[in-house]
Amino acid sequence: MYKVLKQEGRAKRGELTTVHGVVQTPVFMNVGTVAAIKGAVSTEDLEGIGTQIELSNTYHLHVRPGDEIVKKMGGLHKFMSWNKPILTDSGGFQVFSLASMRKIREEGVTFRSHIDGHKIFMGPEESMRIQSNLASTIAMAFDECPSALAEKTYVQNSVDRTYRWLVRCRQEMTRLNSLEDTINRNQMLFGINQGAIFADIRREHAKRISELELDGYAIGGLAVGESHEEMYHIIEETIPYLPVDKPTYLMGVGTPANILEGVERGIDFFDCVYPSRNGRHGHLYTNQGKINLFNAKYELDERPIEEGCQCPACRRYSRGYIRHLLKAKEMLGMRLCVLHNLYFYNTMMTEIRDALDAGRFAAYKKRKLEGMAQEPDQKEK
Questions:
Q1: How do residues 10-33 score in pLDDT, each as one tens digit?
Q2: Distance between CA 202 and CA 314 in Å, rounded?
């Protein structure tokens, strides 16, 4: 059950009650593609840095270790020792990312495994069965994510098929949730709005999926080649046609600035690999802009990554030491950087919720963006 607690313009402050706990929104989902955050981050670490919900990938877990194995191990929560909510994406994004290795038809999509090349078929029913075996809190509907640069006729046909797939997903999930051996019989289903950068297709698709009264709604197919301005425009065009009393999820987005802009336009859920991926390469988020620890000027820097930050890295270690670890290719360096970036994101979401509670989100957003627009690498020379 989702409840809107407060609104400021289109921005929503809400909470989603699930079988695995309550999620306070807006929220950033920490991405653990294969049931682990890249960078040697444990579930204890996630708890310590304020993570509310974790996201894992249906396709990757189906390929390895196999969703049947995860089911035999008691489901994803037990498998990775995580007792808070988990969202699994549907495998639909791989329809986009593995474009050279796939064939789409009405029944579903045939892939080639990125690991060993063996043939995989996945359609709406298969995706729902895999996600039911994983026993995630929230399952995403199976969809096609067309390129932002695709022609309009192709996009319209793709979206029509995605709608038909959504109806099949809902039917299959209803069946799966009624079975005695289903681990999570309270699994939620989120539908996905598609339409590339065609506002009219987005609006019509949003209207149609809203009629299905799902547990939540995502906006997919953004951050895949379009400009930030186009992305914000599509969100503005789409959100009014999605139910305000259901959570909204902007898939695969994004930077801290993207998140602030998304919240202002009515988004509840976000996920992105940026904080972990950038962290593994020494690129760190601070309230005064991004820093690159590989820069030579940090070699003798005794300060933490960010003064006042309470993440595990900043409480104990210096920039100079963490830079040394990264240069020496020690896993600890990547781990500390990933922990800092995820803590930064999770803390920013807490600040956003606090600002919405206080009715001062607009002022907070302005101040946060101005701070992060600085260039600390330049100013500290």
A1: 999 999 999 999 999 999 999 999
A2: 43
Verify whether residue 377 is a known catalytic residue: no
Answer whether 188's CB lies under 8 Å from 137's CB.
yes
123 is in an annotated binding site: no
pTM summary value? 0.96
Give all domains of the chain, ordered by start, each with its CATH number. 2-272 (3.20.20.105), 279-379 (no CATH)
The yes-or-no answer on residue 354 being catalytic is no
Task: Quickly tell me which residue has 């210096």 as its tokens.
Answer: 318
Catalytic residue among 215, 268, 271, 301: 271
Give the CA distances from residue 41 to residues 36, 37, 153, 293, 328, in Å, rounded to whole numbers and listed in that order. 7, 6, 44, 20, 19
| CB 266 within 8 Å of CB 354 | no
Give the per-residue pLDDT at 97: 66
CB atoms within 10 A of CB 268: 26
Query: Is 89 annotated in some ligand binding site?
Result: yes
Catalytic residue (choose from 45, 67, 89, 268): 89
Q: Per residue in 336-364, is it b (16+ CB within 10 Å) or e — as a string? A: bbbbbbbbbbbbbbeebbebbeeeebeeb
Tell whether 309 is in a known binding site: yes
